[in-house]
Write a structure and sequence with these properties.
Length: 326
Amino acid sequence: MFRWDKIRGMEIPNKVKMFVWHLVHNSLAVCRNLARRGMKVDTLCPMCQRLDEDPGHLFFKCKAVKECWRNLNLEEYRLILSTCRSGREMMQKIWSFSMHVQVQIVVLLWKWWSVRNKVNEGERKLTDLEICSLVTFYVSEFETEQRTIKIQQQIGQRRWEPHPENMYKINIDGAFKAATCQGGWGFVARNSMGEFLEGGCGNLRRAASSFQAEALAALHSLERIAQLGMPRIILETDATELVRGLTTTELDQSVDGCLLKQIRDFICSSFGYCSIQHCPRNCNRVADCLAMYGASVVSSGSTEFLSQVPTFVSNLVYEDQAGVVV
């Protein structure tokens, strides 16, 4: 017997659960389904223009989607799922995999359907590498959100805290991929009301360690904050060792000692006041998400600055702001 309640219990956002529900019911508006309902449509797959489009072809057998499965190291799972004769059988197979693989597969199917719809409307088709970057980003975001929820359930909810009116609070974070020695960085600047002033993120072509990624996040973020003319700041990070490296000379003989000295010198020459503080990870969620975006979505070595709240962190920003007592 199929367990519909297991879809509701999956650790993914509701919008993705709704997509899964339609996929299992075979109610997605793929070309073969539309033709079966009596609509006069071209049934060729809009992604490859080679074969008729049904869910089995679109998600598992289309030449274009196979590249995504391979690039995400999910080819063995694609081969298993491609033999399923129904959406229910497919979902039962997915639930037999590890939790991380389940999330990867569901997010890939969800994003592939989104890209397919945009192509069908005449928009540019993303490359398989662009799609895989988005999948990696969203998987990380969803899993981080679930970890945060579980932590909050265990210790009670803690939120970003406000600061004095004559200062700005800057939250920073770095991301590091050990397999590729690449990473990303992100920051968010807010006033004492918790209002978003500016955010930024960037891609690190090369990083030697997670600590170095955190330190580079501090440097690049501070450089931008100085350009914006914020003279009195509180710099927050969830990296305990980075706080130690920027507030003492204890790590100056380490591999990243010169980088730490460079950051401290920059702070002294660029700011009238800078307090460097540690914060819990769940109080640094916006910067963490921006860093993951920089590592996974921003093109290699590039930087993006955001004067408005980006949609993928809007809920986190507003949740932090909701915790500020005015």
